[in-house]
Amino acid sequence: MTLISMFEAAVQHYGNKPALAHKPKGGTYLDISYTELDASVDAFSKGLNALGVEKNDRVAILSENRPEWAITDFGSLKVGAVTVPMFSTLTAAQVGYILKDSGAKIICVSTEKQLEKVSAIRDEVPTLEQIIIFDTIEDEPPEGVIQFETVCELAGGESDSAVSEDDIATIIYTSGTTGHPKGVMLTHANFIFNLQACKSLIDVSETDVLLSFLPLSHVFERLGGHYVPLFSGAKIAYAESTFTVAQNMKEVAPTVMLSVPRLYETMHERILRAVQEGSSLKQKIFHWGVSVGSAVSSAIQQGRKPSAILQLQQNIANKLVFAKLKEATGGRLRFFVSGGAALPQSIAEFFHAAGILILEGYGLTETSPVISINYPKKWKFGTVGPHVPGIEVQIAEDGEILTRGPHVMKGYFNNDVATAEVIDEDGWFHTGDIGIIDADGFVKITDRKKNIIVLSNGKNVAPQPIESELVRSPFISQVMVIGSERKNLAALIVPNFDALKAWASENDVATDDLSAMLQTREVQQHIQSEIRNHLTDFADFEQVRRFTLLEKEFSQEADEMTPTLKLKRNVIIEKYGDVIAEIYPEDA
Asked: Cβ atoms within 10 A of the Cβ of 522, count?
């Protein structure tokens, strides 16, 4: 069984039912049936074959979510190729690294903006033979660039290749502590096992509609928002962009939706802001409604049926308080699924009080991805659920979560050393996360073993390459990037005091009081400019948006550094807790 055989079985079973929906600019949502999708996949796969794409060749995808993404994925898999998806927000340099490391033969880009990135580094990628662009170029495409529609019209290709479940389906690049992303090799069998395990816990069927807005280059959306619904007869509607999710939710009226915690946090913030702007009477009604909803939620969590009076109060609260929230989701939502970063327990409890269940799960790219998940019949807020059936999970002596089973990756592409560092001789994958398994079998993440920063939007950021680049500035001596579970990155910066004082003197800034000098508008703007200039090759989510200048260097004497001069991040975060609170006042 392969992803292609499962897709073809879905086409046979669901035929003319809608598989995908997209919204052209200025238009309304248009459906694409399973049969129509299959025809496009077949045409594109033949076109790839005509271009010389063979089994195990790498086909990269640099695109936002849209029907062509799905067609490219299945069309590539049909000829036995390996897809290499990339975030559309990556810089040209980052795209170039992944193309070179993967040895990509073809890259599919969505727009001329993405085409510019590839064109800028094309000469650095000797394996790259062809660029395919989804959008229509009015003028003649540049040399080596071909329109997506043209590929689908190429004749003479064969659409099928002998693909087995142990073949690599995709290579997904994930940030590592060294700064260079590693290519995670996931097989057809990895995905099929994981999606079947998840489907056994969470029912998704042909009556469901999903709104897809998380990047398909992220394994969470790839499995849960792409393969699971398409193999279940459900319909996937693509959001126009991340900025139109609220509007698209009303238009599509999804029954199931996947997101990172940031969406739920934003919805919660908007609700509270609207309440604060309302009259005192509206505020009292809102807080009463939440208290009623919380009481109902508590009863359900304890396995009790809410009393008749409480149910009556709940009906009133739903009409007076929560009706608008449910209307904002489209009115048909069965549940949300949260992943990619930790979901604050208070957010999960608030939404459940409002009658909306958020099911939080946990996993990594290397585990294709789901390790554990809360599901409708078994959930507990503050945890990431029980582990999925068919796998093993255990806690190592140092508290690290280990897992073993058919969901674990084949390894890192062209990197046996890195593979051996995370998969031991007994087949246990070391997640790098610290956690516990409670008496009921629920997994709870308590800390991160690695230094990778996970932003509240689910993006993984390796701080070391950012820090290494920033200290190249003559005005920055030491830096520690922070931002775990925050909206964006910030930094604690120790300036090069001599260089900064010299610059300040040349720019008529007083230097006799160090503390006052560091707070001047001129110095702050100068350091901000240095940060911006040194991070031009980093992605948008890797930009340092906030910072504070420290008056003392990090040192071994202050227990802030190891003997090998590595930062003791947890020590520094605790020591400068008050400073960090000022950097992120909204989280205080």
From this structure: 13
CA angle 321, 324, 325 (to 5 degrees): 90
Is 426:456 a contact under the CB 8 Å cutoff? Answer: no
> Which of 514, 504, 494 lies closest to 554, judged by CA?
494
The phi, psi pair for 431, rounded to 5°, reads -75, -25
Distance of alpha carbon 88 from alpha carbon 64, whole angstroms: 6
Render the burial of 558-571: b for 16+ CB within 10 Å, e for the rest: eebbeeeeebbbee
Given a contact cutoff of 8 angstroms between Cβ atoms, the answer to whether 521 and 467 are in contact is no
Q: Per the structure block, which two tokens stand in for 345? A: 């327990």
Distance CA 94, CA 536 (A): 11
Tell whether omega for the bond before 369 is within 30 degrees of 0, i.e. cis.
yes
- Among 116, 255, 181, CA closest to 412: 181
Q: How far apart are CA 358 and CA 344, in angstroms?
A: 11
Q: How high does pLDDT run on average in the chain?
A: 93
Q: How far apart are CA 181 and CA 505, in angstroms?
A: 42
Distance CA 182, CA 564 (A): 25
pTM to 2 decimals? 0.82
Sheet with 400-404, edge to edge strand ranges: 392-395, 400-404, 429-437, 443-448
Q: Coil, strand or helix: which one is 300?
A: helix
3-state secondary structure of 390: coil
- 467-488 average pLDDT score: 90
Using DSSP's 3-state secondary structure scheme, residue 36 falls into helix
Angle, in degrees to the nearest 10, between helices 34-50 and 3-14: 140
Cα pseudo-dihedral 39, 45, 49, 54, rounded to 10 = -150
Mean pLDDT for the stretch of residues 119-129: 96
Length, in residues, of the chain? 588
pLDDT in tens, 486-497: 999 999 999 999
Is residue 217 within a helix (H) or strand (E), and if so which, with residue range?
A: none
Residue 350 CA to residue 267 CA, distance in Å, equals: 11
Sequence-separated (6 or more) residues with CB below 8 Å from residue 280: none
Residue 461 tokens read as 């950021």
Query: Mapping DSSP to helix (H, G, I), strand (E, B) and coil, where does residue 415 land?
Result: coil
The encoded tokens of residue 56 equal 């195990």
- Answer whether 121's CB lies under 8 Å from 196's CB: no
Q: What pairing do the DSSP bridges indicate for beta strands 130-133 and 145-147?
A: parallel
In this prediction, residue 417 carries a pLDDT of 94
Cβ-contact 188, 83 below 8 angstroms: no
Check if the beta carbon of residue 112 is closer than 8 Å to that of residue 133. Answer: yes
Residue 468, pLDDT above cutoff 90: no
- Please name the amino acid found at residue 382: G
What domains appear along the chain, each with residue ranges and CATH number?
Answer: 3-163 (3.40.50.12780), 462-587 (3.30.300.30)
